[in-house]
Amino acid sequence: MATYQELMAQKEALEKQIIEAKAREKAEGVAKAKAIIEQYKLTAADIFARKGLAGSPGGKVAAKYRNPATGETWTGRGKAPKWIEGQDRSQFTI
Question: In whole angstroms, what is the distance from residue 49 CA to residue 71 CA?
Fold first, then answer.
């Protein structure tokens, strides 16, 4: 059975190996990503664009209806505000 000192030395050696492996694999991943980016002439907008992803939080939705009395708007999504409930929505269309 190994002593405490021996186990601690093994732990330190493993931690060093883990750090080295992580750095090596990260560098390989970056090199692969750069090659793909260069091959397809990708931009940051191509990679990080959020448009078109189902279920992803996107930008604000444009308002479809406006209350002429207060200027308050509603997108037509979710529960209708009190000022438009039970009324013909076409009169409030923006």
Answer: 32
